[in-house]
């Protein structure tokens, strides 16, 4: 594997949030939260993912 770094594009960043949405709809808040956290770690300005993660935390 190459050590090259590839910049993340908006589609990749949105992908983690969409995966989290799917896990949430499936009823798996643990995996949903993990993917929302990944989305936030890649884009700390992602208020939508942060809000959804907060919603999961409030339900626990």
From TrEMBL:
It comes from the Bacteria. The keyword GTP-binding does not apply. This is Uncharacterized protein. TPR repeats lie at residues 13-46. Keywords: TPR repeat. Coiled coil: none annotated. InterPro entries: TPR-like_helical_dom_sf (IPR011990), TPR_rpt (IPR019734).
């Amino acid at each position: 594997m190459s050590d090259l770094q590839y910049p993340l594009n908006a589609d990749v960043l949105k992908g983690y949030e969409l995966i989290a949405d799917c896990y949430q709809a499936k009823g798996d808040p643990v995996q949903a939260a993990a993917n929302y956290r990944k989305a936030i770690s890649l884009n700390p300005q992602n208020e939508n993912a942060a809000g959804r993660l907060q919603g999961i935390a409030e339900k626990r």
